[in-house]
Amino acid sequence: MTTILIKPLTTQDFAPFGEVITLRNSPDKLINQGLCGRHHDLAHMDFSGGRAGISLFDAEPRSLPYDLTMMERHPDGSQAFLPMTQHPFLVIVAPDDTGQPGTPQAFLTAPGRGINFHRNTWHGVLTPLHAPGLFAVIDRIGDGPNLEEFWFDTPYKIVSA
Prior knowledge:
Elements: E1 2-8, H1 11-14, E2 18-21, E3 29-31, E4 36-38, E5 51-59, E6 66-73, E7 79-83, E8 89-94, E9 96-97, E10 100-101, E11 105-108, E12 114-117, E13 122-123, E14 127-128, E15 133-141, E16 148-159
Parallel strand pairs: 1-11, 1-16
Antiparallel strand pairs: 2-12, 3-4, 5-15, 6-16, 7-12, 7-15, 8-11, 8-13, 8-14, 9-10
């Protein structure tokens, strides 16, 4: 079993796979009589057909070390995960290697940060490390299959650095 060390999630390291959704140093503009900072257009949602939908996911927390047995991707749409708590969560991604996941990478988000996977990015399942595992998810709603799964013959073990 190959071991993958968890790294802190950074915008630069995550860029090939998607976007980190977080507040900027200052808002793009103030709204609501100057009492609310709007941090505008923080992720590019990319869909082939269908429409954007907002769903709530209530995921069971996982523990470390974590055995990565499967990865998935969505060829017809990006997928954004916005935690509804101040707990970090585990994000696992992999480059495409001729139609299957390459070597995975694991990241730990900072509390309150979300992520947006680019369309067709191999990623692990939603992996909160604390309860409640509640997330708002923005993704493609539409006809046709938008899910590919890949099951590893030998799991990867994801561990803290």
